[in-house]
Write a structure and sequence with these properties.
This protein is an alpha/beta fold. It folds into two domains: about 180 residues, Rossmann fold (3-Layer(aba) Sandwich), CATH 3.40.50.11190; about 150 residues, Glycogen Phosphorylase B (Rossmann fold), CATH 3.40.50. The protein is about 35% helix and about 20% strand. The protein contains 13 helices and 13 strands. The strands form two sheets. The protein has a seven-stranded parallel β-sheet, with helices on both faces. α4 packs parallel to α5 and α7 packs across α12. The N and C termini lie close together (about 10 Å).
Amino acid sequence: MNVVIRTDASINIGSGHVMRCLVLAEELDNRGYTVSFVCRALLGDMIDFIQERGFSVFPLNEVISAVTLKHSADYIGWLQCSIEQDASDFLSQIHEADIVITDHYAIGKEWHSIIRNKLNCHIVAIDDLNRTHDADLIIDQNLWRDLEFRYISCKGRKLLGPKYALLRPSFHKLRESDIQEKDQIIAFFGGSDLTKECFKLVEALRHFNNDLPFSVKVIAGRSNPNFEELQGLSKNINVEVVRYLDNFDVALRQSKYILGASGVSNWERFCLRVPASVVSVADNQKELSEYLSELGVMRYLGNSNQVTPDTYLNELIYLKLHWPNVGASVSIEVDGLGAVYVVDEIGKI
């Protein structure tokens, strides 16, 4: 069967949508599906990265008159054009498909209906925003307070909760591995880190005279526009700053603690049972982060616009005082097989 995935990455969007779609694409490919991507050319896109992973990409032209986002939740602005125009551009590239999968906060029912009517295909929607979709299958991997009431206006089947978290197969394998933990903290705030959490953290680390009982490795992100400046700020202090790690999953498993953004990374951390202190770096992460904090499964530092270097300084002092027995008292069970479960359900539509 021919599957086409419509998703984007950019400086504003980040990399999470593309990364989880790649996990799903690889599982589909393993099952004999033919998979390709449709992505718009944007600053910070991951078109080359997707192609390096072995998948064809049909690029949509970059919008010359770029749209300036009105605020961080201006999801239509992410699309850089109208819904109708994006659907038309998609159809100029894709003339037939059995299944179209979307993972994009600007794409919902209107776009789905246009594509379904033209291609007579099935639609699968990956979402986090509790919107209306014209889809046969709706996937939301998050643990919401009102989980059972989400997407109630949608006719399609719902796959809701962390069971369906789209994690790479290595996470399931590492979950039960006997890898030796290190006195190490990994910090990662997304592929772009537009709110400059890395800067705030490194500034806080400058207050310590190499007297922390753990090392700190900061992953700036593939699309971080301030990487060189961040490296300069981190000189002469006990912190390692890298753009990305090819073996991020292994480094995560080896770490005793995480500092990071909420979102997709939550389920990676829970899968590997690594405790974390988390910041909301997007509007849609706030409700989820507050709920997970109420459950006692992570420490929530607040929204990025309220978090300062002093916030991280206080958290580092807390971690220093409670090391090595720091951690959440409760965990969320995530077995890392979400992509397997999702593809099983796709096979039924």
